User: Fold this.
Amino acid sequence: MANIGFPQEIEIAKKKGADGVGLFRTEFLFLNREHPPSEEEQFLIYKKVLEAFYPDMVIIRLLDIGGDKQIPYIEMPREENPFLGVRGIRFLLKHKDILITQLRALLRASRYGNLGILIPMVTKPEEVISVKKIIEKVREEIEEKSNFKIGIMVEVPAVIFSIEEFVPYIDFVSIGTNDLTQYMFAADRNNIEVSEYYDDESNVILTTIKLVADKLSKTSIPIAVCGELAGKPHMVEPLLKIGVKEFSVTPSKIPKIKKQIYNVISSKAYSKT
Ligand code: PEP
Ligand code: MG
Assistant:
């Protein structure tokens, strides 16, 4: 599947053979402008990407703002440690107007394809419960009956050790190895001074992903990786072996990763595991 951040990438993702979109980052819609995007503007973009990939799944992530990304038209308190502060779903639950507008646009678009709504920077099941309550309210308001799935980004280490508590509330998980690595090693992903500590290929990361895969193996919840790790050909085999079912990567990497997946799963050594 493809990671995309702009609607203009739909075409290249299709050309490279994407089987759907595993991560549609929606930050582009909100950055570099003076007002938040309207419900209608968002709806048209979500509809476009859902139609383009139908019947494949399109996973659209709720706005993941905060951390190093700020939006000028929303006043946010200065934080000493923004990556440990009001990011992702923490921000959205404090700015419900933005969350509700995005959910209204997503739910309206859901009838045009197979939608997955992905919640970023989740820490506790209560956050998912809150989002689902708001979704139900929105659904009633706009009288939308189409089906869609709800999933979480696994990026915060606490989620690894409590994933079973999320099971009743989610349909899929996507491991964000970029943030997971920065939080596991306490190394800012953008700070070159600590890059020697930031190792997404480490056994530490594979072990944490395996823990999630093992805990979910008795459920029907599929486990995807959408961080940079998924786009490294030599990591395909270890990820498949620990139970990763979906890979979502930048469009240019799709052919190589697909080929590697087919190579690994058709090898004799793999079929014995
Ligand atoms: C991640 O954290 O791995 C991820 C895919 O999200 P982003 O890079 O947008 O934070
Ligand atoms: Mg992330």
In short: The chain has a mean pLDDT of 96. Residues 155, 176, 178-179 surround magnesium ion (ligand 2) (CB under 6 Å). The CA atoms of residues 81 and 160 lie 22 Å apart. The beta strands are 2-4, 21-24, 57-61, 114-119, 149-154, 172-175, 223-225, 246-247.
